[in-house]
Amino acid sequence: MTDDQGDVVEISYVPDNDDEPDDEVSEEPKTKRVSHKKKTAAVKKIQKRIKDLEESVESITREKDEFKDKYLRSLAEVDNFRKRIQKEKEDYRKYVLGEFLLNLLDVYDNFERALKVKTPSEPPDEPGVNDVRSILSGVEMIYKQLTDLFKKNKVEEIDALGKTFDPNIHQALSKEEREGITEPVVLEVYQKGFLYNGKLLRPTLAKVAVPKEPGEENESPGETGEEDSNVDE
Q1: How does DSSP assign 92-111, residue by residue?
Q2: Could you read off the pLDDT of 104-136 as tens digits, one per residue?
């Protein structure tokens, strides 16, 4: 290309507007990369938060189960303790009352002996006869009250007379051999026995009839001595 004077002029390359670098276009991939990193970091943060929450839920669940187990154990221990106290209370009441009733039986024996004393066979108009009868009537009333008290407290008299001897509830003070029986039998009651709540409170003191040993009548000291002398000769 020449100018007006005829000189040759070199024309350098003039970039077109379209060829100019676009800052916005060059920055777009970088912005996308930053945005992707932020999203990834946010996702990881959320995932970590979820994991932490899950671990917290598991920990709370374990604690809840532990507390529940401890509560059930404590509840069972309290129930067992209540039952044990109730049993000890009942046993204490039984044993304490049993000792009291055992001592009261001595009073019962004395009342029974008093009732066995017969009223004097004197005419009704004799002085003192009616007084004795009044006393016996009063004793009978007290005796009945006492027997009713025993029944109320589950004190039961042992029916022993004529029954088979039982060492668990009878106590033999004396014995007598008799024919016609095959096992020991209570022949006479010296002192009545009693049960309390089905357990022995006091044994029956009795005289017992036992079976007679066979061949005892045929043996005598004289015959035995004679046989021994024959053997010696």
Answers
A1: HHHHHHHHHHHHHHHHHHHH
A2: 888 888 888 777 765 555 555 555 566 677 777
